[in-house]
Amino acid sequence: MDFVAAQRNNDLTGNNMVQGTNFIVNSTTMIVPATPPLSRYENQKRRDWNTFCQYLKNHHPPLSLPHCSGAHVLEFLGYLDQFGKTKVHNQNCPFFGLPNPPAPCPCPLRQAWGSLDALIGRLRAAYEEHGGKPEMNPFGARAVRLFLREVRDFQSKSRGISYEKKRKRPSSSANNNKQKIAVATDGADCGASANFCGHTNVSNVI
């Protein structure tokens, strides 16, 4: 009886050790957190970069990234125009300068300036993320900046739209603050009031 009881105790002890060991293993298991999905911007930047690298491979003769210059970037932007969806009217088109043409015309479809500007921004960031030096970045070349400016100006005239940033309207809280300031400064000396109002106007200029 004593032997059976002792053997039973040993079995229980062994089970406890096994269970304890399992508990320790489970408690030390590393849980690797799932990688967060890429943002829409990062996904688009990766696709743009892959497209540009594929363009360099298909170039005649093939180009390597270190030998890429601003001129090659301009060639790439011209290549993308064939996939554009924005109607850009020629100067001799009767609809030149009309934002909403009343009828179709044979003017070509181009890449919109906003799309090209955003594309260059993403490729400029991707170039440096892949080890490129900022001072050697072909997407930041002066020729590319001038080209984008010319595209913006011409498309603005051609499509009859403005790319200028709109002034933000002051919120209702800002108007309330102005009223409070006017009440607080009422009765003050003219010089102090003039300076204060001038400072307020300057701070509200965007």
Describe this structure in words.
The protein has 206 residues and is an all-alpha fold. 58% of the residues lie in helices and 2% in strands. The chain is built from seven helices and two strands; from the N terminus they run αααββαααα. It has helices at residues 2-27, 40-58, 70-80, 113-129, 142-159, 172-185, 190-204; strands at 86-87, 109-110. A two-stranded antiparallel ribbon has the order 1-2. The longest helix has 26 residues, at 2-27. The radius of gyration is 33 Å and the shape is globular. The chain starts with a helix and ends with a helix. One of its GO terms (cellular component) is nucleus. Residues 159-178 are annotated as: Disordered. This is ALOG domain-containing protein. GO terms for molecular function: DNA binding. Keywords: Developmental protein, DNA-binding, Nucleus, Transcription, Transcription regulation.
In short:
Helices cover 58% and strands 2% of the residues.
Descriptive key words:
single chain; 206 residues; mainly alpha; two-stranded antiparallel ribbon; 2 strands; 58% helix; globular; disordered C terminus
Counting helices, strands and paired strands, the structural category is mainly alpha
Which runs of at least 5 residues are low in confidence (pLDDT < 50)? 12-25, 178-206
Cα distance spanning the termini: 95 Å
Helix content: 55-70%
Largest sheet: 2 strands, antiparallel
Q: What amount of the residues lies in strands?
A: under 5%
Could you give the count of β-strands?
A: 2
Radius of gyration: 33 Å
Order of helical and strand elements: HHHEEHHHH
Number of contiguous helices: 7
Integer average pLDDT: 75
